[in-house]
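Hey, I'm writing a tutorial for new members on how sequence and structure tokens pair up, and I'd like a real worked example in the thread rather than a made-up one. If someone can provide the structure for the chain below, I'll link this post from the tutorial.
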Amino acid sequence: MTGNVLTKLPTLPALPGWNSIRGRMAIVLAVPTCLLLVLTGLGVADRAADWSAARGTEAQVGVLLRVQDLVREVQRERGLTNGLLGGAEEYQDDVRNQRDRTDDARSALRTVLSEESGDLPDAASSALDDAQLPLADLPATRAEVDAGTADRADTLAYYTKAVTALIDAESAGAAHGERRITEGVQALQALARATEAVALERGSLNGVFAAGRFRGGEYLDFTEIRATRLAALGQFRQLATSAQQSDLDAAFRTAAARRVSGYETQAERGADGSSLNVAPARWWRDMTTLVDDLHDVQRTVGDDVRADAADSGSAATRELGGFLGLGALIVAVAVALAVISARSITRPLGALADEADAVAGTRLPTVVKRIQEADPDTPQPGDPDGSDRTQLPGSAREITRLAAALRNVEHTAVGLAAEQAVLRRNSTESLASLGRRNQTLLRRQLGLITALENQEIDPDALAELFELDHLATRMRRNAESLLVLAGEEAPARSWPGMVSVTEVVQSAVSEVEQYRRVTAVDVAACRIRGHAVAELSHLLAELLENALMFSPPQQPVEVYGWQDGAEYCLAVVDRGIGMTLERMAEANALLSGSGSFLTAPTRFLGHHVVGALASRLGAHVELRPTAGSGVTAYVALPAVLVQEPSSTAMMSG
């Protein structure tokens, strides 16, 4: 059915390299990827950068205007406070009102910063936060002014420092974008410095006029402020547009500005410390008008920059949408090409994967099982499943080679399975044959030793015969272990009726080398069915052998037995070197009867023997750590192998 579907697909044009998977993928990916990266990557990145810069500039200008509002209020408070400290007591009410306006401006700035922090550059946001730190001392400064302990020069310097910090923070993290936007932001910052110079001059001369003359270095400060104002205004004129320059000229042509110029001329005549007869209130009123006009120009410049940034962001958004649309078109073309080419690749590979699943899940296990169960003299068919193979659809060389490789793997796996089956069968039969031979010889040897023991009267010789008898008994157990590993039936030794568990433990102890170190500490009375005695004794002997081998020579190995419901439990306890948790988990897996010593070699064949015997008896064997150190082997015998203590007592009676 799959082949019929594939034959109906339209034939693709003969492109170079189309007959190989590598060539097809190169054609599908190379052209659309290059177009996508070259045409859309650079364009999208550039437009996205412009859009981000425009949005950041728009947000930053909005914040800067709020900063200028705070600067304006701090400048007013500075001027009024300086006049108050200069002796103009009429400013007291104005100072209190101005303080409220300053606090409102601070709150408004904090609100804007919290709302616009995500759009501001990190440097700008951090600088604006730091710039507000000097204002933290504002309540203390106000308290000194109200108490009459404030120094006029120091107070003026404090306010000036706070204003300067705010203005300097405006230039941090300046947005980079189009030239007109960048120049607009720089013009706004230059005008802010010029406005600060004018406001500082207002506050400084307000105190001078209130005092009636220049004192100390106040005149020098006055000249420096005017020089700073002229430099900042010159920079603004270089960056501002003609309309913005006209607004600035209009601010300096007002009647108030002309009167301010006259007041400044009078102040220049007081450089020698002579008396100045300028009313502070008139100076403050006219100078405040000029400062307010300059702030209006600032707001106009800021609005122009925000409008330019908004226009730039809109243009960048439109261009970004165009580039993204082009990118989407390229992606659509690439997807269409990928789908067409993928259908010609994935369908043959899917058919090949289905065949591989059939081989791994059905055909190969069936063939391997048949080989393992078949007579070794019966020849096996060459084809794993004895059926003809159909040709896989698809024309690519790699698919054809992959199908051939899969079939080679299947044939090789079947061959290896046959070899392994023969090897395992031969190994098992060899072990069983060797075990039976050893068992026969050892049975004859034990009979001969027993006869010699019965005839011997010399105590020393008899002791040596007993040692030889014990050694032969251990060898018989090893021979029986070979039969167990080979999967042979239970040993021929069996007992009629029931046998006490104490006798079973004693039988197991007699089959280990260091039997003198084994102590039956507390073994509760119980009887074991005779057909299971030999295998249970063998199982316990293997556990005792391991416990003796991995514990100190002077340390005894203890055996415990107790009734647990319908089951009977035995424990072989040693206090030796112990086992790691990982190694103990591996040993318990073997003791559960899982795994074969032919497929999973191990140094501890005794664990395989115990696991096999436990499976035959239906018993559960598990290793656990001994308290302190060492290992405890627990053996749980099922109820079908034991007789309850009450029944045992009745039989004994």
